[in-house]
Design brief:
With about 325 residues, this protein is α+β, with helices and mostly antiparallel strands. The protein has two domains: about 5-240, no CATH class; about 250-320, no CATH class. The protein contains ten helices and twelve strands. The protein has helices spanning about 15-20, 25-35, 50-60, 85-95, 105-120, 135-145, 160-175, 180-185, 190-205, 220-225; strands at about 5, 15, 40-45, 130-135, 250-260, 265-270, 275, 285, 295, 295-300, 305-310, 315-320. Strands 6-5-12-11-10 form a five-stranded antiparallel β-sheet, with no helix packed on it. β5 and β6 form a beta hairpin. The longest helix is centred in the middle third of the chain and has 16 residues, at about 160-175. The N and C termini lie far apart (about 50 Å).
């Protein structure tokens, strides 16, 4: 596990591993950590679903129907073995994901399902903003240019490759960390901490709208099987100081926010002239009474505005024009 603090007025900082590892990573401790709400976005290196082709096959087998599964569907780029997001990731990065349905990765996925369910954090899987996302560190690295392609997992060269990658990542986002943590990342036999740092960076990329979302033709599969979030090219240097999207505001409008119940709640009534746009592209309304109202838009989807608050938590707004 790794975490990164992203202050608005300073460089990002890797949270010392000693702070995160004060408690053992039992299921109960992980549930409590996730329930705390302290994390703006969490990226996990684990599949969030199984291939629909495999589930359909198992359903037919259980129902006593004939199963047709020739050799070419039991190996290679089979939709029985791989999810749609696995195949898209493979094509995009050249990195072949591990098939969750027939490998030991399934044990990890089952634990993740248990922990997330106990924390009441079952994520929406259709590419909409979520506080919990799936990623794949090796493929994520392939999306950032100029990263060494050697193995970070094993072999005599693995520590050197990790060191080169970590130096490029730290320089790209001005990431600071304690020397003891840097040594732990580079010298550990396994690359779990290294992968966790990559996950933390992808979480930030998703937070500020700099990850790839499913194409329209893939959204149904993404909802049913999960989606691997990968950073867009050129996103690394923008993670620390993101630039938010322009929002077209009516002269007068009601700001509504989408609730967990899928219903819209009126947040307030505003005039366009009440908002100032800051250098980072965010909008703030300070003269409306009470706390300032912020609009930090990371993605537009028709009339929906996908925004984040100061802590990086995602929300969905829409603006309803009024006279």
């Amino acid at each position: 596990m790794a975490g990164v603090n992203w202050p608005e007025d300073g460089p990002p900082r890797l949270i010392p591993f000693a702070e995160l590892e004060e408690q053992p990573f039992t299921d109960a401790c992980l549930v409590e950590m996730l329930r705390s709400g302290e994390w703006g976005r969490v990226a996990i290196d684990v599949p969030f679903g199984w291939p629909t082709g495999l589930l359909d096959l198992l359903g037919r087998w259980r129902a006593g129907e004939q199963v047709y599964l020739p050799a070419d569907r039991r190996r290679g780029r089979s939709e029985t073995l791989y999810r749609r997001t696995d195949l898209v990731t493979w094509d995009l990065t050249g990195v072949k994901p591990i098939p969750v349905g027939v490998e030991s990765l399934a044990w990890v996925a089952l634990r993740a399902f248990h922990v997330l369910s106990q924390a009441e954090l079952h994520p929406p899987l259709a590419g909409r903003d979520s506080s919990i996302i799936e990623t794949y560190p090796k493929a994520a690295l392939a999306c950032w240019p100029d990263m060494p392609r050697g193995s970070t997992k094993s072999g005599d060269a693995a520590p050197r490759v990790r060191a080169e990658v970590l130096a490029l990542l730290a320089a790209g986002v001005s990431l600071t960390m304690e020397d003891v943590d840097r040594r732990a990342i580079l010298e550990q036999r396994k690359d779990h901490r290294f992968d966790a740092v990559i996950c933390a960076l992808v979480a930030r990329a998703a937070m500020v709208g700099r990850t790839r979302l499913p194409a329209e033709t893939d959204r149904k599969a993404a909802y049913e099987e999960g989606w691997i979030y990968l950073p867009v090219a050129g996103s690394l240097t923008s993670l620390a100081r993101p630039e938010y999207l322009e929002v077209e505001m009516p002269d007068g409008f009601i700001l509504e926010t989408l609730e967990d119940s899928e219903s819209w709640l009126e947040w307030g009534r505003y005039r366009r002239e009440h908002f100032d746009r800051l250098p980072d592209g965010s909008y703030v309304c300070s003269g409306h009474g009470g706390s300032p109202t912020w609009i930090r838009c990371v993605r537009r989807e028709d009339e929906w505005l996908h925004v984040i608050d100061g802590g990086g938590r995602p929300f969905t707004y829409r603006l309803h024009s009024i006279e």
